[in-house]
Design brief:
Elements lengths: L9 E6 L3 H12 L4 E7 L2 H11 L3 E5 L7 H11 L4 E6 L5 H6 L5 E3 L4 H27 L8 E5 L2 E5 L4 E7 L2 E6 L3 E5 L3 H8 L4 E3 L4 E4 L3 E5 L4 E6 L2 E6 L2 H12 L1
Parallel strand pairs: 1-2, 1-3, 3-4, 4-5
Antiparallel strand pairs: 6-7, 8-9, 8-12, 9-10, 11-12, 13-14, 14-15
Helix pairs in contact: 2-3
Length: 254
C-alpha cells in the first residue's frame, strides 16, 4: 500500500509587541513559499491562548516580552508540543543565555535577516514532513483488521474495514455496497469515488458498474467474461470487461 505525503506548509506565531519589528518579520515570512499562515500576538498571555487554539509549527518569541505568561508559554511548547519549533528573538546577543537556560536552542538576532529566517522555516518544514511520514508508516504497519475508513451512506456514516466489502455496484445516482453477512448499504457517492478510496486495498474496477474485492474471487470464466465472488457459501456472478478478465487470468497463472 502506498500513500502520498501532501504538501505540509508551515504556520507561524510571532510574539512581539514592537509593531515595526513584527511587520518586517511578517513581510519576510510572506515571501517564503513554505509558509501558509502567520499570526501575531503582542503579549505572552494572548500568545498562550493562540498556541493552545492553533498549535503553530513555529513560535518566534521576542525577549524580553510583554505579558505574564512567559514561563507558561515556554513550558507548554517544550512539554506538550514537541513538534513545535520555539525560536527566541532579541535585539542583543546577551539574551541568548536566557534561551539556553530555558532549553531554547534556536536564536535569531534582530533585525532578523531573510536567510536566517528561511533556515528556521526550512528546518521546521523538513521536521513536519518527517513527522507526517512517521505517522503514515504507523498506519501502514498496522494489522489489516485495524484499517478503517469512514463510509458515507444514505443513512449517515459508519466505519468499515475494507475486508468486509465484497463488491460495489453502480446503481443510477447511487452505489450499492455488498458486505459480508448479507448486508447491503446504499451510498450517494459515485462508484468512481469508491474506486479512488479502495484502490489501495486490492479492489479492481472490472466494468463500468462493478468494483470488486479481489480476495473474494472464486472463479474467472473466460467463455462469458464473468467473475464469481463467494463468501460464506453465497456466490455473486459479476459481468466483467474482456481486458479485466485477461488481466485476472494472467495474474492467476503467474
Amino acid at each position: 500500500m502506498t500513500m502520498e505525503i501532501k504538501d505540509q506548509k508551515i504556520s507561524i506565531l510571532i510574539v512581539d509587541n514592537d509593531q515595526k519589528s513584527s511587520a518586517k518579520t511578517i513581510k519576510l515570512l510572506q515571501s517564503n513559499p513554505l509558509v501558509s499562515a502567520v499570526e501575531l500576538a503582542d503579549n505572552t498571555d494572548l500568545a498562550l491562548r493562540k498556541i493552545i487554539s492553533n498549535n503553530p509549527d513555529v513560535v518566534l518569541f521576542d525577549y524580553p516580552s510583554s505579558g505574564n505568561s512567559e514561563k507558561e508559554l515556554i513550558e507548554l511548547v517544550k512539554t506538550k508540543l514537541p513538534e513545535t519549533t520555539l525560536v527566541l528573538t532579541s535585539t542583543t546577543k546577551e539574551n541568548a543565555a536566557f534561551a539556553i537556560q530555558n532549553g531554547i536552542f534556536k536564536y535569531l538576532l534582530k533585525p532578523i535577516e531573510q536567510e536566517e529566517l528561511n533556515s528556521v522555516i526550512n528546518g521546521a518544514y523538513q521536521s513536519k514532513q518527517n513527522h507526517v511520514l512517521a505517522r503514515i508508516n504507523q498506519i501502514i504497519d498496522k494489522a489489516p483488521e485495524e484499517v478503517r475508513f469512514r463510509l458515507q451512506t444514505t443513512k449517515g456514516y459508519f466505519m468499515l474495514n475494507p475486508d468486509e466489502l465484497i463488491f460495489c455496484k453502480a446503481s443510477g445516482f447511487y452505489t450499492e455496497l455488498f458486505l459480508v453477512r448479507d448486508r447491503v448499504e446504499l451510498s450517494s457517492q459515485y462508484l468512481l469515488k469508491f474506486e479512488e478510496i479502495l484502490n489501495q486495498f486490492n479492489f479492481l474496477r472490472v466494468s463500468r458498474s462493478h468494483l470488486i474485492n479481489q480476495k473474494f474471487i472464486r472463479k474467472i470464466n473466460k467463455a462469458d467474461n464473468t467473475i464469481v465472488l463467494s463468501y460464506a457459501g453465497k456466490e455473486y456472478k459479476i459481468k466483467a470487461g474482456k481486458s479485466q478478465i485477461r488481466k485476472l487470468s494472467n495474474f492467476e497463472n503467474e
